[in-house]
């Protein structure tokens, strides 16, 4: 019997490889094009690329799974994310785009941190690079866990083989086409995700009878009214993470003009709002559908997969499953590229005894994509890992380590290099302490009561301010770039 779903997935894989080949011919002449697309990415591609690389597999697996278990209380996570993305577009995007171009064309976030103080080898650059490599390896692993679960649940393929299949396709098009391939594939993946997150909950709800529909509406009201205040605030603090996510804010650096960021913001936030609502409703209607039928799911994070296969024609189901792969791959490819850029631009190039050639940097960038992918795959071999838990740890790590520093770098002239180093270190350590050290009497961590991002964000901000006020101020070149950025934005 012809396997329509598998055929759909194979078509999708072929499309991604085609994009990789196209991008390789179009925009990989040097490492600047490979890592940042030559700063010539359109507003619509920037918007959907930022959104798709942000949402990852947790959008179609982790978030629906959370809504399936906890009900409408998960809406506070969505509210926090939308607000965070909105503020990020306003206070980070324009200044970051202009500053990184004026400051000798900084290509990476660690390089931006270093150039903020007119330093080539500032210790903040090395420390930030290490944080990126460590946390992104975990973050990438979360995507591969989602990929393994997808192949295991949807196609009865071994979990490990699913990881290999997922990472192989991502590595091929990322190694071939670099940032342009990642951005173009993100755009297509964003469209697929949007369609899927509208279609699945709508079709599921249309299969409810009158009684099931009434019960569903009542259950939503009940769940919403019983959300604890502390839990709601904890979920909303996810929005603080946006300011420090390298794979998202690097999109702002690559757009063709800072003047087009307003257009990108409108497109991106519209896409994001609809997609998040769709993901939440998928979990809610999925829970109601299971409760009113003889069906069952063993893992709540696979509810989207179950509904796609149970309610749709196999060919359509294949494309809906491709939406999960789209979400997974868009984030993995972005993370691999950012990790590679830090390894090459911030470590290898900065500390090499000789100036490497353009072709050498390009080759090493591609090799580093493969290396990070292999390490992340090894971490992902634990099939019991929760997609949402892995994402939450990495999201908090970046948000606390980099978020305050990005904001202060762009808005506070008195920020010093020592303050920047203190912020990254204190933010990272606070998250690790809060999330992993069993400080409570029962052996649990503090994260069981409150998400680790907020305490890490506050601690990092305090460290930045206190150390900066007591250390030497930035040199004149750093102040010149800071002032030039503000002047250029005022002209616009």
TrEMBL record:
<protein>
    <recommendedName>
        <fullName>Sodium/proline symporter</fullName>
    </recommendedName>
</protein>
<feature type="transmembrane region" description="Helical">
    <location>
        <begin position="159"/>
        <end position="184"/>
    </location>
</feature>
<keyword id="KW-0813">Transport</keyword>
<dbReference type="InterPro" id="IPR001734">
    <property type="entry name" value="Na/solute_symporter"/>
</dbReference>
<keyword id="KW-0769">Symport</keyword>
<feature type="transmembrane region" description="Helical">
    <location>
        <begin position="67"/>
        <end position="87"/>
    </location>
</feature>
<dbReference type="InterPro" id="IPR018212">
    <property type="entry name" value="Na/solute_symporter_CS"/>
</dbReference>
<keyword id="KW-0915">Sodium</keyword>
<feature type="transmembrane region" description="Helical">
    <location>
        <begin position="449"/>
        <end position="469"/>
    </location>
</feature>
<comment type="similarity">
    <text>Belongs to the sodium:solute symporter (SSF) (TC 2.A.21) family.</text>
</comment>
<feature type="transmembrane region" description="Helical">
    <location>
        <begin position="124"/>
        <end position="147"/>
    </location>
</feature>
<keyword id="KW-0997">Cell inner membrane</keyword>
<feature type="transmembrane region" description="Helical">
    <location>
        <begin position="361"/>
        <end position="381"/>
    </location>
</feature>
<feature type="transmembrane region" description="Helical">
    <location>
        <begin position="271"/>
        <end position="291"/>
    </location>
</feature>
<feature type="transmembrane region" description="Helical">
    <location>
        <begin position="6"/>
        <end position="24"/>
    </location>
</feature>
<dbReference type="InterPro" id="IPR050277">
    <property type="entry name" value="Sodium:Solute_Symporter"/>
</dbReference>
<feature type="transmembrane region" description="Helical">
    <location>
        <begin position="303"/>
        <end position="328"/>
    </location>
</feature>
<feature type="transmembrane region" description="Helical">
    <location>
        <begin position="419"/>
        <end position="437"/>
    </location>
</feature>
<keyword id="KW-1003">Cell membrane</keyword>
<feature type="transmembrane region" description="Helical">
    <location>
        <begin position="229"/>
        <end position="250"/>
    </location>
</feature>
<feature type="transmembrane region" description="Helical">
    <location>
        <begin position="191"/>
        <end position="209"/>
    </location>
</feature>
<dbReference type="InterPro" id="IPR038377">
    <property type="entry name" value="Na/Glc_symporter_sf"/>
</dbReference>
<keyword id="KW-0812">Transmembrane</keyword>
<feature type="transmembrane region" description="Helical">
    <location>
        <begin position="393"/>
        <end position="412"/>
    </location>
</feature>
<dbReference type="InterPro" id="IPR011851">
    <property type="entry name" value="Na/Pro_symporter"/>
</dbReference>
<keyword id="KW-0739">Sodium transport</keyword>
<keyword id="KW-0472">Membrane</keyword>
<keyword id="KW-0406">Ion transport</keyword>
<keyword id="KW-0029">Amino-acid transport</keyword>
<comment type="function">
    <text>Catalyzes the sodium-dependent uptake of extracellular L-proline.</text>
</comment>
<dbReference type="Pfam" id="PF00474">
    <property type="entry name" value="SSF"/>
</dbReference>
<keyword id="KW-1133">Transmembrane helix</keyword>
